[in-house]
Amino acid sequence: MTKSNDNPDMVVQNIRREGTVTVLELAGDIDLHRSVELRECLLEIMQKKPKTLVINLSQVGFMDSSGLATLVEAMQLSRRYGGGIKLVGVQQRVRSILEISRLDSIFPMFENEAEALAS
Amino acid sequence: MMKEDENPGQIELTIHANPAYLCVARAAARKAMEISGLSRQDADGVTLALDEALTNVIRHSYGGPCEKPIIVRISQIPDYEEKESALEIVVRDFGKQVDPKTIKSRDLNEVRPGGLGVHIIQTVMDEVQYSCMSEGGMQLRMVKLIQPTNSDDSTSKPKLIFGESRIEKAQ
After folding, report:
1. Do A85 and A107 contact (CB within 8 A), yes or no?
2. pLDDT tens across B73-84, in order?
3. Could you read off the pLDDT of B35-54 as tens digits, one per residue?
């Protein structure tokens, strides 16, 4: 399963399956405006209960608390059915908000997709 | 609408309370910070704090996206408290008023979505002050000391000042 988005203005750029893992590639700034699109996508993914969801944030240069809230909500949904979420390529600006909010410990973070898929 | 004030170190930006304009405010503020000499790391934090402040206005003061105005004023203060240079950001809205003393961050030990905006603002900024305005609406004044040579101060404890429910003129 692969769903790609050619619109560079959309946060959700690509969704694909790697075995039991779903990989979600995001891009751009995730704020109150864009988090609506992200939340819809994450809820749709969570309905399929993937064992692991890898979210690639390497193209995300900014995220605020509304974006973070969507990730936390998805994490909570995944934990309910025994799944998990891994973050990949987290840029310093995004890492900072995770640290300020003390949420950096609940999201496993990896340098790249290969590391996340191998873990 | 963006204009440069009589003070060359000040800009004023008015946006609709629409999340689509958050990126515009961030970009303008970011440029002002660059000019002010704020370090890149501090500029990242202050940009985030401004975004959170505007998001709170849209969500809570106005109860959702609308065409009502939010005014953002960014000023450079050369001799802040007679010692340092600082960047002052004022966010003015014309929505619902709340007692400044009730504006608090939530318990971070509770892992749940939402409610992090106030915590982020208080963590990032050196001074945070909410005020009810006599003409209606609220004003948030945030100050960040400019320390270009020491950029690793984003996690220092902020000095938090509430508005003491005082009523003051907007202009």
Report:
1. yes
2. 999 888 777 767
3. 888 899 999 999 999 999 99
CATH of the domain at A87: 3.30.750.24
* Number of domains present in the structure of chain B: 1
User: Among partner residues B22, B111, B154, which is closest to A33 by beta-carbon distance?
Assistant: B22
The closest CB to that of A97, out of B20, B23, B48, belongs to B48
- For residue B63, report the phi and psi dihedrals to the nearest 5 degrees: 70, 20
Contact check, Cβ <8 Å, A69/B52: no
Q: How close, in Å, is residue A12 to chain B by CA atoms?
A: 17
Domain count, chain A: 1
pTM of the model: 0.86
* A69 contacts B26? CB cut-off 8 A: no
Name the closest residue on chain B to residue A96, using Cα atoms.
Answer: B45
Tokens representing residue B19 in the block: 């999340």
Best residue of B116, B122, B124, B154 to probe chain A, by most A CBs closer than 10 Å? B116
Is the predicted ipTM greater than 0.85, yes or no? Answer: yes
Q: Which domain holds residue A57?
A: 2-118
The string of DSSP letters for A82-114 reads T-EEEEES--HHHHHHHHHTT-TTTS-EESSHH
Instruction: Report the gap between the CA of B154 and the closest CA in chain A (Å).
Output: 9
Sign for the CA dihedral angle at B131, B51, B123, B74 comes to negative
What Cα–Cα distance (Å) separates residue A21 from each residue in A51, B77, B79, B118? 6, 52, 55, 35
